[in-house]
Amino acid sequence: MDDSKAREALDINITTCFETLPPLPCSLHLTQCVTHNNEILICAGDKETACYSYHTQKNQYKHICFYPDGVELGGHCIVKCVNDSNPNYITLLSFGGAKYTSGHTLVMKYVSVWDKDDDANENECKTTELFNQWIPLVINSNEKVDDDDDDDEEKDSDSDMVNYTYSSNDVIHIGRSEDDYYGVRALIAGSNNHLLFVVYYPGNIDVIDLNTFEYVKQTTLPIDKDNSIRYPCFVLKTENGLPISKDNKKIHEMMLFYWSIGFSIEYNEDNNSFQFHNVPVCTTLAVNLYGYVCVSDCILFFGGNGNTKFITSEKVHKYSMKNNTWMKFEQNLPFALNDCFAILNEADMCVHIFGRQYGKRDASAHIKTKVDIWMREETQLERQLIEIDEIKRELNEIENGSEKKEVEIIIDHWIGSLFTKSKWIDELNDIILSYILVFVFYLYSVCCIRFSPDGTKIVSSSFDNTVQIWDVRSGEVIKVLKEYFSWINDAQFSPDGNIFASCSWDKSIRLWSTNLWTEIRKLGGHIDWVTKIHFSSDGKTLVSGSYDRTIRIWDIESGQEIKRIGGHSRGITDVQFSPNDQQVVSASNDETIRIWDVNTGEMLKELKGHSGSVVRAQFSPNGQLIVSASKDETIRIWNAISGVQLKKLLGHSSEIRDVKFFPSGQTIVSCSYDSTVRIWDLDLEVDIQILKGQNWARLDITSNGNTIASSSHDGTIRLWKAL
């Protein structure tokens, strides 16, 4: 398929690839599901013990049962066992529990709740009252696994496992009291599907014989001591939809993913040993608790959670087990989902996804999508994303401060092999090769930094109540201004460079001459901290924002207030003129962004979507977009005319402190308390470089886009320059 046809197919599928299904009868998060014929069995969730059957043809739910009183759920695991001798029912095994808690190990024989009119099932149910309810796992020690050959191996942890009895001696508990099974994941494999592989916190993997429920093997994953896992993606490695086994079904292959951890795992049944092979993880898969499902030789990933409650993803990824490659799709989920579970219904080849819909408290969502949508050829943009991801992984192996030659070798390799015809390569050398650092030291945290229009100077302010002007080339201090007795929140040069302005906790704004470095005048009127200032493009007016919840516009020549704008319900954190000076954008601790008409003071648009204080809102160079950054750890791109959110960028793992457009308007740079500066491509919606260092507070970019300045709470300013 050529790219135009792939793009045409994508355009059609963007609006039709997901179908929203009826909501669950109750709020279920961190649930576990299995399939049975045309049913999806939904087995409880966090603090909810109800179990339901969803019928994929009837599009309805039916209640099955509750877990017994006292069983704590959330983070539990369900595996399915198929009984070839009686296809009318399946056996489910449920286990889990936090460390040093009672935990649970329960079993249920399930017969369809939809087939009560079927004589065979009705008679089956009358023979015992132990169907469709969770009971302790009690197994007769004389029972054996059915060792009949199973040519049709099942996926998704299906098994011809032990034939349970419920009237005999030993109560079985999977896991010891010291094992932390909160977020446990498991699968069934083995030459006779008789081995249970269990992965659990902090990085353990056990093998349990399902004949005897004795441990066959206990070991740990080869991860750093600072890392740990909960809720990993843990699946059998498949080829053409079947589990991969070698040497007469004695070597079993599995895959495990968690955050940046990836392993291909081999277990040799004969010598009872594991081999672990590192597998790269897509750099844009910056979440966990995603829904995942195996389809053919691929794993699909849907949504997921970030480091905090604020981060929720709507992205879809695919990993090819055959090719060891990743892809981020252009299409997203219809809404962000966290605490996800995904399951394949083979009857109609649809993936069903359950999760918590972001922004709607306790709202459980159920959507489905057809598999073939995600097995198509990549579009040109998606191929670009794959290539950039490979570049980023190689660059991440180079520590900050690496020799220029090492970086150039990698860039030359990728330019020659991948990006000959890509528009993105035009900015690659300017952006990726930003490894030169210039250090300047303050004694206190640096509050702000701004380049002069010609890029030769930097004005900065600090919590030591000073404003300093620096020579960019030499790194030497040109002037220190000590007239303040309070912290200075912001400082900025005028467009012609002849004036700079500063604002402070003392509620004032001051204008300074850059010729004599003396104060020209003080602007007074705000009744609380002045947080941000910005010159109009002609340098004749200045806009200011304050914790007094007002925006004020000032005449530079007279120093008079010419417009006062109010509307935010909490303190204002950022203000900026549009490029044509006709609008002002503001950000606030009230979690909103607002666009105002400069002449009338009327609010034109209110942009809502962030779930934390908005710390920055800036127009793009052409005025058509607004970029915002928030304490909710997200960056969002908005249409400046309609106010519609266009994109949400995920990657930072802590509060974002600043964000700026590059002059091209296609790239942005951000900094965060997660100790990274990230450069983002807006078309691709990925961070194309991560600069690691200190606890970054502010940043700025020269007018030609060749140099980034970043400041930190450790008192340093760093210049990141193109090599």
UniProtKB/TrEMBL annotation:
CDD domains named in the record: WD40
Pfam families from the UniProt entry: WD40
Keyword presence, Coiled coil: yes
Coiled-coil residue spans: 381-408
Domain of life: Eukaryota
Species assigned in the record: Reticulomyxa filosa
Entry annotated with the keyword ATP-binding: no
Full protein name: WD-40 repeat protein
UniProt-listed SUPFAM superfamilies: WD40 repeat-like (SSF50978)
UniProt keyword annotations, A-Z: Coiled coil, Repeat, WD repeat
Residue ranges of WD repeats: 446-480, 481-513, 523-564, 565-606, 607-648, 649-683, 699-723
